[in-house]
Amino acid sequence: MSVATNELDARARQSRELLDAQVREVVEWHFNAETGCPFWLEFASKLGWNPRSEIKSFDDLKRFPPFEDEWLRGGPVRRWLPKGLEGKPIFTFETGGTTGVPKSRLQIEDFRIDYEMFSDTLPEGYFPRGANWLMLGPSGPRRLRLAVEHLCQYRGGICFCVDLDPRWVIKLIKWGESEALDQYKAHVVEQAITILGAGHNIKCLFTTPKLLEALAEELENRGTSIKACDITGIFAGGTEFTPQYTRFAMEELLGSGVYLTPTYGNTLMGLACSKPVTPDDGYKISYFAPEPRAVIEVVSFDDSNRIVGYGETGRVKLTTLTRETFIPGFLERDEGEREHPCEKYPWDGVSGVRPFRKIAGQTTVGVY
Amino acid sequence: MAVLNIPILRWGQPYTSLDKEAVVHFVTGETLARVSQANTGLLGRDMRFAQRARQVLADIPVSDLIAMMKKAADLYLNGTLPIGDGAQTPDDFARQQSASTGLPEHMCKANMAKNNFVLTNMGQILDSLTRGLDLNILTRGYGVESRGVTVSYQAQAPVLGLVLPSNSPGVHTLWLPVIPMQIGLVLKPGPQEPWTPYRMTAAFTEAGAPKEAISIYPGYGEMGAEVVRRSNRTMIFGGLPTVERYRGDVRVQVHGPGFSKILLGDDVVDDWEKYIDVMVDSVFLNSGRGCINCSGIWASRHTREIAEALAERMGSVEPKPPEDPQATLAAFTVPGAARAIWNSIETGLSDGSSEHTTARFGARLVERERCGYLRPVVIHCNSTEAALSNTEFMFPFVSVVKCPQEEMLRRIGSTLVCSVITYDEMFQQELIGATHIDRLNLGPVPTIQLDWLQPHEGNIVEFLFRPRAFQSRLEKAAV
């Protein structure tokens, strides 16, 4: 075993100890009548065992039954508010909701903390401090807009925003209204181009894969490009990212001098960062959760408590461990391959993330 | 055989994607090819050069392109042609196409012969489809017909988009006239049938057609939608939902289920036995896979006897290996497809208004490790209200429906090919005027019988070119 491997192993063990400590702290917080939220306190009362005394490590979280996303739908949303955080200004962010009641997550500071941690992973050369940003994507009830705006402010810039309503987009797709869809996309892109051309010194962009493509195409129709607009850094996410798309974007939409970083995340988990994506690595995209605040596991399709081997395919399972939110073992609507820890992120990651095969046909994905 | 790596073709330039899908032999599970899958953005980028595709073709006289088609016909049928990182003989092609589509090899070869025929006779076919137009008028956009009238035809798109099916190699004849009409091609092959688009493109290129005129984008479902979105003219193949989705869109020519039928007039129905061969051929040939295969036989009486006779002729047919020259049934190579179809038939039968007359010949659903077969099914429907009275499946399936002659036209619904056996002139006139019948055969003509000089489900020339008013007083403009 090489020195580097030994060192990585040691760091992985250290990360695990930090994670176990985080688990103990968060469980103590959420299941303590003085600090916990009504939902988990009531839940614990029916468990027949005491999480505060019996959960000592991350592995012990398997004792909880699978987290059901239905629990997050509907009110009163304050059942998720830990008593220890009462009195602070609260945000509620939603996910889903094209039809029916969306899932909600209360947040106070988490989105800021998540994006500040993400900020530390951005290469300064492409995401210069003080640069202004354009947030081109879903806002409304989603946390993305506020989160990106905070990221920009945290880095000393001002964020310009153009909204896209993904719930409307999904409806247009379901109705087969492709012309209306194109018009809506053009409407969104038009606003973005207006802002980019208005002398705001915008150098960084958040957008989704589809909008990035549409923006690049329209700029080219007008005889210019993303690079010519002085954009140097793009943080993209919101929908599925494939290596082929990333390669296509880097080679044909952006060119050299523009940095693209894919991300994976949602309102429940936060934001998983990608290792730098390079041609040498076949544009492979490996995501790592912001441990110890959130954990990604790749688990067997048949047994959600069994982690698959490295390189093997499984379903993505998320665990959120903050004082604001405790979500143990949430089975995502995605699958992927389990990745080894790396130097930058000495814990497991996931690559090849794509819609979970059993529900892929029922879900409209990659729409905006 | 080595696994082929088949790239995307971007106006002739190969592009290997990071996304690849394996094409697998439905019997052995052997990987035949890894086909690069295109992301939709590639098409968006490439469509910037669509006009060039038309231009490079317009630079070549139509007569030369027709000659190239003739040469391509021979190369396609007999040549060893490049495909991806390998080469392909005609036998390889038939074996590969059979292995992924489930069609028996001899049927694949028969389809090759059809494609060869169309390419070889392109001049006559275009002459027929354009009703004798001087084809140079398509190049120039205007000209004077032999009767001395100025006419103008305007291309409606520089390229034709095609969203092709996986299961019916016979449909490729429909797009073969496009290149000699100096319109480029954007092809999205069916996932199980990449073979024909690539082989045809190789044959065209070897015969001298400019490679910049053709692009091929294998891809997932959204790629098909993107081809439609990006092309001003698209031909798409699909099921009823696809037909519904694009109904009324002038940019799109949809080819869906045909619901092709044979109607027996009251004046001939007592002699139904004379026509049983026509009925069997219409239902059974080419494994019943085409939209021109008959799925309904309608008559006012003797329907039970007709159904029994058809069951007697087809009921005992069994699946055979794809390389067997006697094989008559195609396999369903998409997992679960055969069972899903059979379940749908069983559901239809449960309403009690239909009888399954092939039941006595044993189980219809035959499931194998990687595929399924459906043996021929004949249903007798006592009325047009039966759930299975107007259905179509992609195997030899036919409903024999009892219906008074005077109600037939009102009840048959949209029908791609209608063969009507009657000498009743009034009924014939009603049939000629029926707008829900696309191709009409009067007399005992099998529904699957094609006349290459007749258009199929919409004339490709009229789809691609718009006749318009045109006047010129420029001295040099007159021809």
Q: What brief labels describe this structure?
A:
heterodimer, A: 368 residues, alpha/beta, Rossmann fold, eleven-stranded mixed beta sheet, two-stranded antiparallel sheet, 9 helices, 31% helix, 23% strand, globular, disordered C terminus, B: 479 residues, Aldehyde Dehydrogenase, Chain A, domain 1, Aldehyde Dehydrogenase, Chain A, domain 2, 2 domains, seven-stranded mixed beta sheet, five-stranded parallel beta sheet, 16 helices
Average pLDDT for all residues of chain A? 91
CATH homology superfamily of the largest domain in chain B? Aldehyde Dehydrogenase, Chain A, domain 1
Straight-line N-to-C gap of chain A: 46 Å
The CATH topology of chain A = Rossmann fold
Q: Which structural category fits the helices and strands of chain A? A: alpha/beta
| CATH architecture field of chain A | 3-Layer(aba) Sandwich
Strand arrangement within the widest β-sheet of chain B reads 17-20-21-16-15-22-23
Domains of chain B (count): 2
What is the total domain count of chain A?
1
**DSSP strand (E) fraction of chain B?**
15-25%
Task: Compute the average pLDDT of chain B.
Answer: 94
Shape of chain A: globular
Name the poorly predicted regions of chain B: none
What is the helix fraction of residues of chain B, given as a range? 25-40%
CATH class category of chain A: Alpha Beta
Q: Which chains share the greatest interface?
A: A-B, 17 and 15 residues
Strand content of chain A: 15-25%
CATH topology assignment of the largest domain in chain B: Aldehyde Dehydrogenase, Chain A, domain 1
- Biggest sheet: strand arrangement of chain A: 4-3-5-6-7-8-9-13-12-11-10
CATH class of the largest domain in chain B: Alpha Beta
Please mark out the parts of chain A with pLDDT under 50 across 5 or more consecutive residues, or reply none: 363-368
